[in-house]
Each structure stands twice: as C-alpha cells, then as structure tokens.
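Collaborator request, handled under Task 6.
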Amino acid sequence: MSYREVLREIEHRGLSVELFGPDLWVQGDRTCMDPEFVARLRAAKPDLIHHLRQVELHGPGFPLTPLQHARLRTGDPGAAGGHVYHEIEGCWDVDRLQEALAAVVDAHSGLRSRFSATGRQITEIRGCRTRISRLDLRAHGTREQTRIRGELREERVHRTLPVDRAPLLAVEVTVLADDRMVLHVSHDGLVMDGASMFLFFRAWWQEYAQHGRTRTAPPEELLYEEYVAALEEACERAPARRAREYWLARIDGLAPAPRLPLRAGPLPAGPPRFSQRRARLDREAWAALKERAADAGLTVTVVLLAAYAQTLARWGAGARFTLGATVPHRPPVHPRIRHAIGQYSDLLLVEAEVDRSLTFAERARLLHARLREDLAHRDHSGVLVLRELARRAGAPAALMPYAFCSAVEQDGGADGSALELFGPEVHTVSQSPQTWLTAFAMEQHGALVVQLDGIDALFPEGLLDALALGYQALLRELTDRLAWQRTLLSELPDPGLPGHGTRPS
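Structure tokens returned to the collaborator:
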C-alpha cells in the first residue's frame, strides 16, 4: 500500500497525522487504530515522513501538470477559464442522478482536485459533493420557459468555476414538465480532458442505470497524485532529456501561429465570449473518409488535421504555421489508466505546411511524418517549449491561440455518443484560456462531429461561419479517392474578407 493510500485511510478513519521531531504523531480515537492499520502505517512511515516534510516546505497538496499550470495561470485575470457546458434534454430521477454523480466523483480522485493560491492541487477526501439544484418551471407557459432558458444559458455558458473548491463541476436541472427536463452540466478543463469527458458521462450513466442492483466491488482507480508523481519521475529519465534537446533545437525555427484576418478596433470589455459551429460527416461519408485514410497509410486524425490546416490556410492563415494540439498523455503507470477520469493530456506543438504544389495525399503524408517524430519526443511538454520560446523571443511569439484536438481513435471504449446517454444534447460550447479558435473532433453515433469553438468578436463577421462550412466541404470532398491526387481542392469560394489583422494586446 502506498503512503498516499495510507493518508486516505487516515482521513477515512477520522484520524490525523503530523511530524513530531523525527517521528510521526497520529491523533484521534485509538479504537480506530487496529493492529492491521498500525502495520500499514509503520510500513509507509519513511514515505509519510518525507511527504510531510515536503508539505512543510511547499504547502499541502502536490504539483500541477504543465497543462494545468498553463490553464490556471494565464497571466490575464479577464481571460476565459477552461470550461465546457452541456444542455441535455430528458427526464430523470434527480435524487438518483445525484447519488450516481457522487459515486463517480468518489471513484476518481482527479475529479476531487482543488487548487491553492500557492499553485498546488489538493485532493479532497471527504465532503466532496456536487449538489444538483432544481428549477421548476412547470407553472410557466412555453414562451416564458424559453425566455428563462435563454437567460440561464447565457449565464452558464461562460461561467467560471471557483478553482479553490472541489469538485470543479456544476450540475443543475430545470423541470419543464412532468416528463421533460433539462440537465445543465459544467466542468473545468483543469480536472477533465476530452477523453475523460466521454468516460465521465459513461460512468455517470452506468451508476444511474445500475442504481439499486447488486454489483461487485468497483476496481481500484488510479490516484491522480500518483499519476503526477510518475510524470515528475519520468522528467529525470533519458527519454525526457532527449525530448528536451529535440525541442530546444527546433524552437528558433518554429513557425508562427496562423495569421487569420482579425477584426479591427478594440475588443468588447469583459471576458471573451465563445460560440460554436460544427462540421459533420454522416455515417456513410465518415466510413468512406476512414477508408481513404487507411488506403493512404494514415490515421484518420492526421487526415482531419491536414484538412483543417488547409482550411486555415485558405482563409488567410499563411502557408506555414503552428497549431497547439492537446494530446492524451496516459503512460502505463496503472492497470486502469485508460479508464481514469481527470486531466490526462498535454500540449503538443504541431507545425503545418500547406504547399499548394503538392497533392493532398503528399501534404498529409509529410504532416504524418512530422507528427510521428514530434510524438516520439512528447516527454517534453509543449507548455515548456512555449515558456522557452517566450524567454527567447518575447511573450507575443509564444502565443499559439489556434488549437486542434482529436478524441477519434482513442482508447477507453467511449466516444462522443456518451454525451447523449442521458438524452439528446441540445447545446454545448467550450472555452479555453489564451485560445481564439479550437477544433475538437469526435465520433458520435457512428458519424463525425468537429466542434469549432471560437471568439466571434476577434474575427471579421462571417469568417468563422465560412471557415466551418469550408472545412466540412473539404472533408466531404476527401471521401472521393480522386480528390487525394489533386493539388487544389474546391472548398468554398473566398468571401472577400479583409486582410490580416493584428493581435489584440
């Protein structure tokens, strides 16, 4: 048993432990200290003493991952926090819904992190509950319900959850009729990545659906603190050193961010407001695109990324630029790592080059080769690369506000269909700090959905709509084998938008 598990057992038994000179002092009801517990305590004693000394030096808790650190400390108090909001329609037993939610939060310590002013995270052991509030609108007419729902959406879409309180989740239910409700779910990117979002909704639904049934004891999940400790230990090993040398050698030649046209004039006051567009392929078209990718020896994620880069270039990004890609980072540190719910991802900087003299297949293969090499050196976080770039070239050069994230072909057995286990999702939007436009690709009910969340106020009117339509048109065209051998693909015509803007200060 690890010292972290012993600490958790101490909490559960209502005891406390602290340093007493070179020894430990366990306080509390002695009837809770049976011989087996004392034996576990003695076995973990050296590690417990080391841990408590670290707490004296650095404060309680454990370090943040590089991605968590970047999202928590954006350097801009008015910046948007990492936040995803969902509205789902259906009808549920709300008490049962809350019990199921509590079971998921209890099982996954990554969901119980809160963040201190000293830049550390602390896992809450007890009393970590999300109360599902209810708003009953059954007495209101349809028009009034619609108005109130609109106000609630506007308030909740851009909310910022307090990071010093766990869990970083907010759940509400609006009752519209005896058989019709709306489930409002908010979660923070500090404690849940894209793949974990699917796993979270699936686990929540399973707990809800199996309520009252006799079940075997759940498997022991990975403690998030142990995951972070494993990452820190890996930083001292040879692969991490090689990865650092690889990225340091590339920094000075790293391509800039895309230079899409930006709106002239000052930005609206207050935090940025994100809205969502979608590019979709139905089951048949998505199956055809996956087949084309396999024929070319490429992953479908690379194809989606290559097409996205070409779309950005078409709308003014330039021929060579760098995107921020959020990629899963789940090394085999625990048997249940693929099923763990938390922030298990990292930033990878991806250079894209759109050479119009090459066919799409050739461009995609070049991107695939570059991406494979970059992923082979992923042990040095892209967050650390950007810090070094800022040191060498200044903070503006290190701003990479265009992101691409793919949850396609990921392990864990859940995809975007999990978002609709409780009912149809009728509205969703995400926002990320220091990001202007994010593409998030997922499979849902056998089809492809790419969510494009962007800040409308930054861009000329109509640009994000045109870009989303152009991306969808390009993906549809790529379902045809012949399109892969063309140098120019049709996409949508340029709407005559203004030229490159300047980045807002």
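The cover message to the collaborator said: "The first helix runs from residue 3 to 12. Residues 74-80, 498-505 have pLDDT under 50 and may be disordered. Please let us know whether this matches your experimental observations."
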